[in-house]
Design brief:
- The chain is an alpha/beta fold and 405 residues long.
- The protein contains 10 helices and 18 strands.
- It has one domain: Metal-dependent hydrolases (TIM Barrel, Alpha-Beta Barrel).
- A hairpin with a 2-residue loop joins strand 1 and strand 2.
- The chain binds (4S)-2,6-dioxohexahydropyrimidine-4-carboxylic acid and zinc ion.
- (4S)-2,6-dioxohexahydropyrimidine-4-carboxylic acid binds next to loops.
């Protein structure tokens, strides 16, 4: 048993508390404590970030990212849990492909991790959830909803309707035309379509507008937005670095989404971390879609909180609490019974994001020069794994088995 003393974020505010941890799990939160060795944690202590939507490319495309680099990047950005998507080079659709992926990544993660399966005619009990592709994106997966088998787990929906994408095909040479190739209408149609299947625990990923967000919420789904759809738009001169599915929208649509950050319609802010190499991104038309963001997700939102764009309560809810609840994992709260994952931040210290200082293999970010509040200390299940930029523990991340749900 060990105890930590600090200014912890508990039930909506920072409180001076002692947190007693037993084998990585919070046993007690107390106002006074005696007779135990206590470690003081400096700064404001938040629960570790939970990013329920990343693409770490491992196995299959480890030149872009692998679990080592992806999870290192997560840790530096204050994220202690990631859930990784199944659109690997060999898609993760059954137990054979799932177990081979797990075997490949098992000892290589700095942070705790769950793995999704792509919905198919076979369910994988160990998967953290099932991914549904209603339109093709990187990897070309398309889910057959009529033959897929379902489990009582989160079903994360890539909501772009393929028929609509096919009907809008045109030249794709810049961010504006990419948006026209996959317009908001395709997002709306996908949401409408999945509703007909009446599945449990349906979660609509990377919503790009208030219109689609409110529509998804009105149908009873949980919702997700990304920092890139909140902060970037297709009028910026990002070229193919801003090419992503679903696309960045017009400035007005983006600004409206950003203004709605505190609203009840948003459950989760996930990164959709999808690294591609700069070489692949050279020619717009040929460039694969995807934006890296696992390291900048928490820092960007904490910086937005400092600027008054989002409340602290909503930030913690969308970055930590809700994704943990939706994935049914013991994370996201500093409270009895939860894993002792903490990040310590100086909420007054916004620094400039620089792509070359980030830890993803891809080496770039569309958020160059944006402000971010990065953690000084990161704890995973009671163990300090990052101390003022020094990595203290390698690969202590554990697999979160979806079977336990
Ligand atoms: O832009 C995207 N990139 N959207 C996706 O759905 C997949 C992702 C990737 O894996 O590159
Ligand atoms: Zn994705």
């Amino acid at each position: 048993m060990e105890a930590f003393h600090g200014l912890f974020y508990i039930s909506g505010e920072f409180r001076e508390k002692y947190v007693v941890v037993d084998r990585g799990v919070i046993k007690e939160v107390k106002s006074e404590l005696s007779g135990m060795n206590v470690t003081r944690i400096k700064g404001h202590v938040l629960p570790g970030g939970v990013d329920m939507h990343v693409h770490f490319r491992d196995p299959g495309e480890t030149e872009k990212e692998d679990f080592h680099s992806g999870s290192l990047s997560a840790m530096f950005g204050g994220t202690t849990t990631v859930c990784d998507m199944p659109n690997n080079r060999t898609p993760i659709t059954d137990s054979t492909t799932f177990n081979s992926k797990l075997h490949s990544v098992a000892k290589r993660s700095y942070v705790d991790f769950g793995l999704y399966q792509a919905a198919s005619s076979e369910t994988v009990p160990e998967a953290i959830g099932q991914k549904i592709f209603l339109g093709k994106s990187t990897g070309g997966l398309l889910t057959d909803l009529n033959t897929s088998k379902w489990e009582d787990k989160v079903k994360v929906v890539h909501a772009e309707f393929q028929e609509c994408i096919d009907n809008n095909k045109r030249e794709n040479s810049d961010l504006l035309s990419h948006d026209m190739n996959r317009p908001l209408e395709c997002e709306m149609q996908a949401i409408e379509h999945i509703f007909k299947y009446d599945l449990s625990r349906t979660h609509i990923a990377h919503l790009t507008s208030v219109r689609s967000l409110e529509f998804a919420k009105s149908l009873g789904f949980t919702t997700e937005v990304t920092p890139h759809h909140l902060l970037l738009n297709n009028a910026l001169s990002l070229g193919s670095l801003g090419k992503v599915n679903p696309p960045l929208r017009k400035k007005g649509v983006q600004e409206e989404l950003l203004k709605s950050l505190n609203s009840k319609s948003i459950d989760v802010i996930a990164s959709d971390h999808a690294p591609h190499t700069l070489l692949e991104k050279e020619i717009f038309g040929d460039a694969p879609s995807g934006i890296p963001g696992v390291e900048t997700r928490v820092p960007l939102i904490l910086a937005a909180n400092r600027k008054g764009v989002i409340s602290l309560e909503k930030s913690v809810s969308a970055l930590m609490e809700k994704p943990a609840q939706i994935c049914a994992i013991n994370k996201g709260f500093i409270a009895e019974g939860y894993d002792a994952d903490f990040i310590s931040v100086d909420l007054k210290n916004t620094s400039e994001i620089k792509g070359e200082e980030l830890h993803s293999k891809c080496g770039w970010t569309p958020f160059e020069k944006f402000g971010g509040i990065f953690p000084d200390y990161v704890y995973l299940r009671g163990e300090m794994i990052l101390q003022e930029g020094d990595v203290l523990s390698s690969s202590s991340g554990e697999f979160l088995n979806g079977k336990k749900q």
